[in-house]
Amino acid sequence: MAGFSRCSVASTAAKTPTSAAATFSYLIRALSPSFSSSSSTFDPETDLNRGCPGVGKGTYASRLSNLLGVPHIATGDLVRDELASSGPLSSQLKEIVNQGKLVSDEIIIDLLSKRLEKGEAKGESGFILDGFPRTVRQAEILEGVTDIDLVINLKLREEALLAKCLGRRICSECGGNYNVASIDIKAENGSPGMYMAPLPPPPECASKLITRPDDTEEIVKKRLRVYQTMTQPVEDFYRSRGKLVEFDLPGGILESWPKLLRALNLEDHDDKQSAAA
Length: 277
Ligand code: AMP
Prior knowledge:
Monomer. About 40% of the residues lie in helices and about 20% in strands.
């Protein structure tokens, strides 16, 4: 069966200062007038969560962050920074991440809270969250401190997810995310074919590419299973609140990006930004 793996991208617009729950103490303000999706309304001050490994949520989050002028905060990056810091959590995190497991809710919320507090101190208002929440508990805590306006559920076939993870390359200097995989899935048994072109690095990054230690076939398959058990229920959490927008990625970024903007009613935003550039 050519099933789809469902990967959630949650957009939250926090309109009110949070009168804070224990773990979070940050203030998020609306940046600009809201724009609407087909099923909901949300502000460019969005939180966007990366769920399923390999779907490209980081790439879409980063693009939306540039488009909307809000910071992009990936909890996976926070974990990797902590891991590289040789701090007290470092070896514990390394073991968890390299086994494809989730870090505990307490640790991830602590890392995220610190990042949000730093941002708040710098005057950041709003953000795009990437990779959070990944458990219902995390979603409940988030809901306790801010309003989620929209969750985008990015969907991609599992075979493409695996190929994308295995083809992922990161520039060790600038952190840019690229992909060497050329994904060409033939139409079969009523399922349409799909082509995703590689996303090559610019020449200045080409000699500095590294792969993530958790992007091996065995660990990616484990992460997909963890996603199904731990993170898929988060989709239901937002679905039951009427905040979930389903989006089947039709192909690579060039094909998908304009369609995603259309689904979010953000085309005008993109046009204005291109005109201003
Ligand atoms: P990512 O870059 O989003 O794929 O995250 C890399 C790894 O960081 C994951 O496989 C988890 O081990 C950990 N991680 C990132 N975000 C979370 C989260 N919200 N909850 C638990 N673990 C996380």
